[in-house]
Amino acid sequence: MGEDNADELRELGEQLQDASTVLQVQEIRNAWLGRKGIITARLKGVALLPVEERRQAGQQWNSVRLAIETMIDDALARLQNQEEILQLEQERLDMTIPGIEPAVALLHPLTRVRRLVEDVFLRMGFTLSYGPEVESEWYNFEALNIPPNHPARDMQDSFFVDIPNLVLRTHTSPVQIRGMQAAAGQLPVKIIAPGRVYRRDDDPTHTPMFHQIEGLVVDHKISLADLQGTLLAMTKDLLGSDIRTRFRPSYFPFTEPSMEVDVTCAACNGTGCRVCKGTGWVEILGSGMVHPVVLRNGGYDPKQVTGFAFGLGIERLAMRIFELDDLRLLYQNDLEFLSRFSRYTGRPAL
Amino acid sequence: MKLSHRWLTRHLPDVPEPYVIESILIQMGIEVSAKESWGQDFAAVELVRVVARVAHPNADHLSVVTVEGRAGTMTDVVTGASNGMVGEYVWYAPPGTQLPDGRILDTVNMRGIPSPGMLLSASELGFQEAGGDLWVYRGDRPVGTTFLEAIGGVDTLYELELTPNLAVFDQSVLGIAREVAAVLGLQFRDPSREFRYGTDGNLVGIVDPMGCPVYGLTELRLEGDGTTPLWMQVLLRSIGIRLIHPVVDITNFVLWDIGQPLHAFDADAVVLPIEVRRATDGENMTLLDGSLCTLTPEDLVIADQKGPIALAGIMGGDRASVRPTTRHVFLESAYFSAAGIFKSARRHRIVSDAAQHYGKGADPSMVVVAADATLGLLREVSGLATRLERSTLQGKVPNRREIAFEPERIRQILGVSWSDQQIQEGLGRLRFEVRDRSVVIPWDRHDVMATEDLSEEVARLRGFDQIGATLPSTPTRPGSRDSEVSFHENLRDKWAALGYWEVVTRPFWDRSRDVLGLGFEGTPVVVTNPLREEESELRRDLLPNVLEVLAYNRGRREQPVSIFELAPVYHQRNGLPVEPMALAVAEVLEVAMQYPPAADVGIFRLKGALEWVNRQLNLGLHEDPSGPIPGFMHPGRSVALYNASDLLVGYLGEIRPRLASLKFHAKRIGVISLSPIVPSAPARGGVILAPSRYPDVSRDLSLMGPNLSYQAIIKTVSQSGALHLQKMRLIDVFAGDFGKSVTIRLIFQSMTRTLTDVEVDQEVRQVVDALKQQGVSLRGQ
Q1: Does residue A315 carry a pLDDT above 50?
Q2: Facing residues of B577 across strands?
Q3: Residue of A nearest to B491 (CA)
Q4: Nearest CA of chain A to the CA of B515: how many Å?
Q5: Using the beta-carbon criterion (under 8 Å), do A259 and B464 form an inter-chain contact?
Q6: CB distance B65 to B52 below 8 Å
Q7: Angle between the B366-380 and B246-258 helix axes, to the nearest 10 degrees?
Q8: Which three-class secondary structure state does DSSP give residue B22?
Q9: Chain B interface, mutation test: which of A161, A206, A216, A244, most B Cβ atoms within 10 Å?
Q10: Is A203 on the interface with B (CB under 8 A)?
Q11: Where are the strands (E) in A151-239, listed by range?
Q12: Which single residue of B29, B51, B155, B444 could bond B363 by disulfide (Cβ 3.0 to 4.6 Å)?
């Protein structure tokens, strides 16, 4: 054999060299090793040889076949590599194109702020409490020490409805009475009541519907100092520990003493600006010690227990947190505006 | 209320700097809503001496006046004034000066002679002065003095917001001065000189002593023509009170100075005696402002023998009002009960300074003090001689109220450890007299009824910041949201996570906004005093509000809109309001242009979202394409929604495209409306099975048939009895001239062994046979 084989292997080598695709190599493999291939025919020819030659020839052709297979496999691997490189190159994407983000939306900023406040008070052991929006005048006014013709009714211009003795509640304070009645004499009463309230106002800082969170604690020996401590804990929790707080006397018919709480203006950090009208302070809530009349209307004896209450405007707090100066934006629901709140991702509670 | 810092010095000679006053006001609970300086405009006006005066060469009634100003500067000014002779001192405003009426002076050519600025009359400066055109100065200030210096320099004005309780006693400079003195511990003496009324009892009779406990009347004759003292003019003008006539100016001044309203009648127009009585039904009168007022027996009036001459404590009548020519005056100083005045003023919708004071509560002890002060001030008016004639004081100043002194309770309410003495001392500074175990309340403190009120007084005097902060000592257990609220919050979270923005709308609504043609049943809750006609009832359906938001956003820009709201709707049932929660979702069904492009799944994203939420939150909803759908919905692309009790609770689908384009700026809009929204299915649980270890086999079937519905196919396939059918999935829907074809993929698997082809073929045949019985055939067969 010898020379003969060398020629054939050389020829195969040239064929493989010329092959430029995987398909061509597969054709070459068929031509050489297929059922009717050159080597297959040779191997079949071995069977026709005399017995004494058969063994040697068989071994020889088998080793040739192995060599051929190796050559073809190598060629195949080389071409597959080349083709893969080509393919990868063709598949190249502009990876600077931004990914398609999942279309996740946001809760309304008022919902986010409401939950933030709720969570602060839930941690302090308050329970959520609710009342109707179309409320009786008794719960909304009389029970809260606001009889008809009381000057305080001037402070809250009410919406009336076509059902006698009902109004759209002007504050969440009626839930104080409902909460005390539900507690039925048990102590402590410790509730917060978030909800929608209504007043006949419409300007950049007032909308006819807005949201409040009412808080109420009734127990033995609750004091104004307890109220201040609770509100300080809240403002620090909500607005950060470097916030400064100021307590001022105020007036609400259903609390006595009454107190308003100011915090340093976020826009100017307390130095005075347009947002805070130059005062450096922004009012965030009204509060006070529960008026004896209110305690009695809730079924508690003011000689035995005292309590404090506060009412926080969620819009006002949202304006403080997000530094907004027009409340009405919150009700326009412009998606361009709402989507901007996605930047508030640093505070998990928001 | 406007407060002048300068005015405070009348009661507090050593008044602290304006910024100190401001912080004291805030400490006492008086909100300072604005602060400004006043008088700067007068800094340019200069006192000059007339050194020469010649007739204008080109005009008979004009003169050219040479004046000497600061540092000997000489200026020629043309004037038409008849006074301002050589040697007289007058006020000169150079070019650039802004006058109170808004004019800015310039150099003008007066008939050929340039005239820089102007020599001024009193009225051009906004003041009153009798006689002459120019305001001739008769004081002893030197040439060059500015008008601002002459009136005492720049003043600071505060705009105060008084809460109703403070309005009771702080609506005067005296009230504020008392507060300041109390905080600073200054010696302070209330004005206490009392006018000694005469005994002419036949002038006045009080018929309603409850409405009017004290009434004083003084008869005055005025002679001559005076003007209000300049210092008073300055104070009144600084707080924005118009100058009218010395008598009126002085009563206005006393009102704001000590808080006691006074009223002057033209005595010649009064037919004595005067009665303080309730009006009779239907009685009417013309008020000072010209309005006709129809009275009821609830109104208190001051009446003479011809009828009412004043709506008591609120506004005088026109008939006996003081006019510039009036020289015979009845001066009223009285005390009316607050409740009656408040109600009357409210009923007649009159906002007057008197009603603002009486309506909150006045001080009966000030009746005689105010009368004295007024007469004293009238005597200060130069050129006007005041002669006192008859006078009378009817009624009696009521006793001051007393309440128990409970220092321990004050300490407990405030949470402080202040001593009895500290508390007593604090109360004393605010004029509360502690006698043994009781506290005597000052006459004007109608707001103080109980120990709670006294606690506030002590606290605000010492400062709320002095109280300290503690936490309630009640044991704290963390609170939690109840299951209903948690459900609502969860629902919001899910929709937001699914890519739907939460919106918050107001529940006001009106039929005029019903572009969908909702055609409501039942009764709405109607708002009887809406802000706007289109907000005259409370919504019964949330979807229109949400669609308005969608339209608003589409109107602003072409953008994808996917929004939802979870909020109450309002119905009236048996005369009572109910407020069930509703969910509304709206989405513009269009594929945003983007790269790489997104698949257009139409309404099926919204549908899938609801189906997912339905499972996640056990809403228990099921859909029915043939259920009732509102007329504005696409009949072929909507389903009715039922809860687990088969109650119709809403619908999902597309709005009719023509309506959508017309009203909401989008061709395809998918919506969901659900109410009430509550979980109606029990929570699911159960054992989680391990997956089979054996391979699954899938077979695809292309089906055809009349009115092919996927829901029907599922039902048939799942009831076909194919034992090892694990899952079924829709993989294609294709419509052509042959009809509609649906391709489903069936997946078979056993938990215990590998299925053979023969077994799977057998089960597929079962499925196909079941489908054939329903008229569904395999495509191509």
Answers
A1: yes
A2: B572
A3: A107
A4: 20
A5: yes
A6: yes
A7: 140
A8: helix
A9: A161
A10: no
A11: 166-168, 189-198, 209-219
A12: B444
Residue B483, SS3 per DSSP: helix
| Interface predicted TM-score of the whole assembly (ipTM), two decimals | 0.86
A188 to chain B: closest CA residue = B474
- Reported in sequence order, the residue ranges of A224-315 that DSSP labels E, i.e. its strands, are 245-252, 255-264, 281-290, 306-313
Residues 87-146 of A with CB under 8 A from B: 97, 100, 102-108, 110-111, 115, 118, 121-128, 130, 132-134
Q: Distance (Å) from the C-alpha of residue A85 to the closest C-alpha of chain B? A: 24
- B238's CB contacts (< 8 A; 6+ apart) are B2, B4, B6, B7, B38, B39, B155, B157
Q: How far apart are CA B362 and CA B337, in angstroms?
A: 8
Residues of A in contact with B360 (CB under 8 A): 151
Check residue B321 and report its DSSP letter.
B
Residue with tokens 């609502």: B488
Main-chain phi, psi angles of B305, to 5 degrees: -75, -10
Handedness of CA A329, A333, A336, A342 (dihedral sign): positive
Asked whether the beta carbons of residue A225 and residue B166 sit closer than 8 angstroms, the reply is no
Instruction: Say whether pLDDT at B178 is over 90.
Output: yes
The Cα–Cα gap between B661 and B159 comes to 53
Residue range A88-125, pLDDT digits in tens: 999 999 999 988 888 889 999 999 999 999 999 999 99
Residues in B closer than 8 angstroms to A160, CB to CB, are 527-529
Contacts of B161 in chain A (CB under 8 A): none
Cα A128–A129–A135 angle (5° rounding)?
A: 150
Q: Does A165 touch chain B (CB under 8 A)?
A: no
Give the pLDDT confidence of B385-410 residue by residue, as tens digits. Answer: 899 999 999 999 999 999 999 999 99
Question: What CATH topology corresponds to A109-341?
Answer: BirA Bifunctional Protein; domain 2 (3.30.930)
Say if A169 is an interface residue toward chain B (CB within 8 Å): no
Q: Tell me the pLDDT tens digit for each residue of A245-294.
A: 999 999 999 999 999 999 888 778 788 887 777 788 888 899 999 999 99
| Structure-block tokens of residue B467 | 């109280």
